[in-house]
Amino acid sequence: MSRDRFVVHLPVLATDLAAAKRFARTITRSLGFLPDIDPAETTVSEEDAQFVRHRVFCDARLDGAGRCARPADHDGPCAPPRQ
After folding, report:
1. What CA–CA distance (Å, rounded) separates 38 from 32?
2. CB neighbours (10 Å) of residue 21?
3. What percent of the chain has pLDDT over 70?
4. In this structure, how many other beta carbons lie within 10 angstroms of the beta carbon of residue 69?
5. CB contact at 8 A, 20 and 53
6. What is the pLDDT of residues 39-51, one digit of tens each?
7. Nearest-angstrom CA–CA distance, 52 and 58
8. Taking the model in full, what pTM does it have?
9. Nearest to 5 by CA among 31, 27, 52, 37
10. Is 68 within 8 Å of 60 (Cβ atoms)?
11. What is the predicted pLDDT for the residue at 83?
């Protein structure tokens, strides 16, 4: 049985895009124990430009190790999620 997907928008105050991404990563990782959290789809946007979304996690596929859990646009090699 498939379920519909819904997106929860949780407005927060951040000083800039980098701070908003850090906050989103912290929230996503702290709720990672919940099976319905999809870190790969975590994005942030400005309040008045919600159609312009900025990806928070890299999300590149890793050979046999799931998806990269490092920040989007990171330097260096991708890394699997922490266990």
Report:
1. 8
2. 21
3. 95
4. 23
5. no
6. 888 999 998 998 9
7. 17
8. 0.79
9. 37
10. yes
11. 58
